[in-house]
Amino acid sequence: MTFQLAPFLAKSVPGIGVFGAIVGGAAALAKNVQRVKDQQISTTEAAIDTGKETVGAGLATALSAVAATAVGGGLVVSLGTAVVAGVAAKYAWDRAAELVEKRLLKTGAEAAGDEDILREELA
């Protein structure tokens, strides 16, 4: 008997999130392979972006499933709820990732400045 991945993952919210991460990660990787090929970004940047998109897609998919289940209703209401929840979750994830990146870049710049000061003091 063959293993059926999608029905297996659809049995739980974490599984649904994993499935969303697989699909979102694959889409991000496809986009980033072309960007690397066109020399728009480095392979490191592609890996980081693919990772962020993979996690964001998984979280958004899982939250969509939870929201649609909680609201219930008919097909249109469930689909609308899933879309709104998914967009909100992905938007929040993207803004949080940007904030973390800015703080890390700022911290890295400050650390480089501290090293320069130390070099000047030791010279």
Beta-strand residue fraction: under 5%
User: What structural class results from the helix and strand content?
Assistant: mainly alpha
Number of domains: 1
Succession of helices and strands: HHHH
The count of helical stretches stands at 4
For this entry, what is the oligomeric state of its chains?
A: single chain
Share of helix among residues? over 70%
Q: How would a textbook summarize the main sheet? A: none
Q: How many β-strand stretches?
A: 0
End-to-end Cα distance, whole Å, is 72 Å
| Shape type | elongated
- Unreliable stretches (pLDDT < 50, length at least 5) are none
Mean pLDDT: 91
What do you see in this structure?
- This protein has 123 residues and is mainly α.
- The protein has one domain.
- It is 87% helix and 0% strand.
- The protein is built from four helices and no strands.
- The protein has helices spanning 5-9, 13-37, 43-71, 75-122.
- α2 (13-37) packs antiparallel against α3 (43-71) and α3 packs antiparallel against α4.
- The longest helix has 48 residues, at 75-122.
- The chain starts with a helix and ends with a helix.
Features:
123 residues; 0% strand; 4 helices; single chain; mainly alpha
